Amino acid sequence: MEYVDPIKDIESINAIKQILQQQSQRDLLLFVLGINTGIRVSELLALKVDDVWEDSHIKEFLRIRDTKHEEVKAYYLNNNVRDVLEKYLAQWNFTSSDYLFKSKKNNQPITRQQAYRIINHAAKEVGIPGKIGTHTLRKTFGYHAYRKGIAISILMSIYHHHSPAETLRYLGIEKNEKHLIRVDVNL
Question: Which residue numbers are catalytic?
Answer without folding.
Answer: 40, 68, 135, 138, 161, 170
